[in-house]
């Protein structure tokens, strides 16, 4: 089951004083050098994740590309790695588009998603000659057509359908139901394709479907694949519209539990094996034969599955305190660095950087932010933690930094990339003066304080 787990870049050293490593380098060494909060990435893990997806598709011989969803993590150094491996890019803003182009993704492998593309974003994407817009409404089709006409260009469009399928993920990250704002429902989708095919400056090249994120069963994907294939075939037979590609979106779930293991780490309630999550090859094996019935080129847009398990967010314990109900471990890292626990009640494994024999206890691991929802883990059995200890919050590579904020006027954390026996800073820690919009003279006053 765990083809991803077996390749984990993060593991404990195999000695008397187990120390958490990234590609063999002790995270405590990196944390000492750069301070915390700190995101530490493994280049090897990102490359392996990409190829476990892309490789299964390559082996099938099917014409395809894997379009990495930048919203999961858009650090340009990581983007360069993925562009270098042959990935495409799925973008949702002009910022992501420019980052993708700068990192070297070829425009013919860039797709532009999102329910609210601005005129400027459409214009810049047209000029950049991207592969396709994934279009979400009739009105958007008209707008793109108008802008393309004005520029004397033709826009390649793929229409996003909403198959009304429950992804059985958290409601905030489910996108394939009628009550969600995404796509055009199946009843109106044919009309949208016919409308698009009549617009002089549009070229209808594809269909797009994405039903949600962190999907941990194959069933919703299989249902979405069947429904899309049925629609594509009927569009061809009944309306004579022939497409070039089928973009099946992203959403593949990953393991968040028991990601690193050690006999000294307390077991969580899921036990040794962790919860069941289909592997990427199981996913491809289940949906590809269905999607292949269309004969179209296939695009996938994974984000989380490529970068999530390639990062540990490092934090330092500042204080501990207990009342008659709870014990709190207060760290220097919180919802400003990782909002997923607060936003989706998401589980992230927390592991001390150094392990020692001893008792464990149930604690809430919280941040320094003035919000009750500022927690990283709740009621979590942990080895005893004390002031000055360092911990890693695992699988923080997707929707970690990209959802980070400056709330409480906290500068965003630094990012480090480990590559074999080397590591280097790939984004500097922000400074207060970067984020408060100071005048030059105010900056001069502050410069004496920041170290
Ligand atoms: N394609 C489209 C159209 C999307 O909207 C998304 C994610 C993806 C691809 C990539 O999905 P992935 O493979 O990463 O599941 N902030 C949330 C996740 C939001 C996902 C938004 N759309 C979280 O932290 O769980």
Report on the structure:
The chain is α/β, with parallel strands linked by helices and 451 residues long. It has a domain at 43-309: TIM Barrel. Helices cover 30% and strands 24% of the residues. The chain has helices at residues 27-34, 43-60, 76-84, 94-103, 119-128, 138-151, 186-197, 218-239, 280-291, 304-307, 340-344, 432-435, 440-447, and strands at 10-12, 20-22, 25-26, 38-42, 64-69, 88-91, 110-112, 132-135, 155-162, 184-185, 202-208, 245-247, 297-300, 311-322, 327-331, 350-352, 360-366, 375-383, 390-394, 414-419, 422-427. The strands form three sheets. Strands 4, 14, 15, 16, 17, 18, 19, 20 and 21 form a nine-stranded mixed beta sheet that branches. Strands 5-6-7-8-9-11-12-13 form an eight-stranded parallel barrel, surrounded by four helices. A hairpin with a 2-residue loop joins strand 20 (414-419) and strand 21 (422-427). It is globular. The protein binds ligand LLP. The site of ligand LLP has 23 residues, from helix 10 and helix 11.
Helical content stands at 25-40%
Distance between the termini: 48 Å
Strand content: 15-25%
Total strands: the figure is 21
Write down the CATH class of the domain at 43-309. Alpha Beta
In terms of structural class, how would the helical and strand content be classed?
Answer: alpha/beta
Low-confidence stretches: 1-6
CATH homologous superfamily annotation of the domain at 43-309? Alanine racemase
Mean of residue pLDDT values: 94
Backbone shape: globular
Largest sheet geometry? 9 strands, mixed
CATH architecture of the domain at 43-309: Alpha-Beta Barrel
Number of helices, where a helix is a run of at least 4 consecutive DSSP H or I residues? 13
CATH fold description of the domain at 43-309: TIM Barrel
Bound molecules: ligand LLP
Could you tell me the radius of gyration in angstroms? Answer: 23 Å
